[in-house]
Amino acid sequence: MSRSTPAAPAFDTLLLTGAAGTVGRLLRAPIAALCRRLILSDRHPLGVPLQPHEEERPCDLTDRRAVEALLQGVDAVVHLGAHSVEAPFEQIARANLDGVFHLYEAVRRAGTRRVVFASSNHVTGCYEQGHRLEPTDPPRPDGYYGVSKLFGEGMAQMYFYRYGVESVCLRIGSCLPEPPDRRGLSTWISPRDLFSLVAAALTTPGVGCLVTYAISDNSAGWYAPTGWDQLGYRPQDSADAWRDQVGDRVFPEGSPMARLQGGSFLGIGPFDAPD
Ligand code: NAI
Ligand code: 15L
Fold first, then answer.
1. pLDDT tens digit string along 54-102?
2. Domain boundaries, the chain
3. Which of 4, 137, 221, 242 is 20 to 30 A distant from 13 in Cα terms?
4. How far is the CA of 222 from the centre of ligand 2 (A)?
5. Atom from ligand 2 closest to the CA of residue 122
6. Does the CA dihedral 67-200-233-217 come out positive or negative?
7. Looking at domain 11-267, what is its CATH homologous superfamily?
């Protein structure tokens, strides 16, 4: 009987920030195939047993020195850690502005090869629903959260063109087990497709600094697949299968939530200054 030797993992050490969150919990198991050691980091405890290849390293992204220590010996990072919904500016700024700055500085100093940055569809959430977007179209963020993701993409560009740190910025649509509503027929990405895109974003050689939308093969998708060929991304799933189930889950007709791509985020804010 012949025995085949398993292929060596692509990386020795990978870091997953935001590991205790929704997407972190979905990516944690499949991402293990890409590395010998997986560092799971969040400001909250994971609260689940660790596998032998896993290491838990709690870290608050707002602590610059702690982030610098976290990146020591890390070959590549999937940066999910963030305030992930629209909120007052002060709340967004801590993890999504300061935290991203700390992350990229630590990456530069540690010589980390690649960042996969979890950007968002909310960078362009003020476009009308149905408008088909290229990643190069002018941004139209739908709130402070969307602006913060645009800032992250800007940091990715700056750290590539000045310091050679490669990044893939994934403008993720809606990553859930199923599309939640009619908007999801356009924005949904299955956990399986997101993992395959993250894996491609980590391992495709010579990406430079690439921005691409991250959705499944949705026929109602609002985003051109620009960048997918370069990464070899071929979505396996489609929101179309849920059309009948979610077709009537809509926001009030004529409201910004129903009219613009950012959906429910258009219903949050403005925020008055605290007294
Ligand atoms: P989530 O809110 O469930 O997870 C984010 C994690 O970041 C949390 O576990 C939180 O504790 C951690 N975090 C927040 N502030 C932190 C800090 N100061 N220091 C350390 N950790 C901190 O969000 P989710 O859904 O898992 O999203 C993951 C990433 O993907 C986020 O960056 C989000 O903005 C982005 N994204 C997610 C989408 C989705 O459909 N779930 C769509 C578009 C973008
Ligand atoms: C995001 O960027 C959020 O992090 C996530 O919670 C979802 O709301 C998603 O976008 C979406 O637009 O559905």
1. 999 999 999 999 999 999 999 999 999 999 999 999 999 999 999 999 9
2. 11-267
3. 4
4. 15
5. 2
6. negative
7. NAD(P)-binding Rossmann-like Domain (3.40.50.720)
